[in-house]
Write a structure and sequence with these properties.
With 160 residues, the chain is α+β, with helices and mostly antiparallel strands. It is 35% helix and 35% strand. The chain has a six-stranded mixed sheet, with helices on both faces. The structure holds coenzyme A (COA). Coenzyme A binds next to helix 2, strand 3, helix 4 and helix 5.
């Protein structure tokens, strides 16, 4: 991701079909978004990526090393108007990047309990469900469970 992507990524992030599945769901302004990018892009533990196909930007991926030894979290969204199949391609490219390029050991994902697309998506990519954080997220009105997924480099390699 570069400065050129800021407006596009912000429009995706603020879209109702993306925002409703995030931990923070307010509409993000350009200033807040720019401040986030300036900070996050300087942070060596983060990889901010735009997924492209045929030079068209189709999604965003944020990989964050959260523990020593290459253990990382990820977050992602496809462009809301992206063609069917984009999610799968984005996921496969992100895993290739995480394990083959960045050399990570483990990638972890978290999905809100009502995010059926993301839960199915992690399962289809080979992630194992590792637990449920019960009523871990409060959206201002009610609590939701958080479903935790993990994928080891060795499991990704074995599934190729
Ligand atoms: C999470 C996300 C990236 C998952 O992508 P996805 O929905 O699996 O995307 P795909 O386009 O690959 O697949 C959509 C469906 O179309 C199907 N499909 C894939 N290629 C297709 C094609 N060429 N023709 C028809 N259908 C197709 C898939 O099998 C899938 O069906 P399923 O949901 O019944 O399995 C996407 O839903 C998203 O960006 N959501 C909003 C943000 C978000 O929730 N982020 C994650 C927070 S934890």
């Amino acid at each position: 991701m570069t400065n050129q992507d800021l407006a596009r990524v912000l429009a995706w992030r603020n879209h109702e079909d993306v925002r409703r599945y995030m931990y923070t769901q307010h509409e993000i302004g350009l200033e807040e978004h720019t401040r986030w990018f300036e900070r996050a892009s300087q942070d060596a533990s983060r990889h901010l990526l735009v997924f492209e196909s045929d030079a068209v930007s189709l999604g965003f991926i944020n990989i964050h090393q959260i523990a020593p030894g290459g253990v990382a979290d990820w977050g992602f969204y496809a462009a809301p108007d992206a063609p069917k199949g984009t999610g799968r391609h984005l996921g496969q490219a992100a895993l290739r990047y995480a394990f083959a390029q960045a050399g990570l050991h483990k990638l972890c994902g978290q999905a809100l309990d009502y995010n059926e697309n993301s839960i199915r998506f992690h399962q289809k990519l080979g992630f194992q469900q590792e637990g449920i954080l019960r009523e871990q997220h409060f959206n201002g009105q009610r609590y939701h469970d958080v479903v935790c997924f993990g994928l080891l480099a060795s499991e990704w390699q074995a599934n190729l």
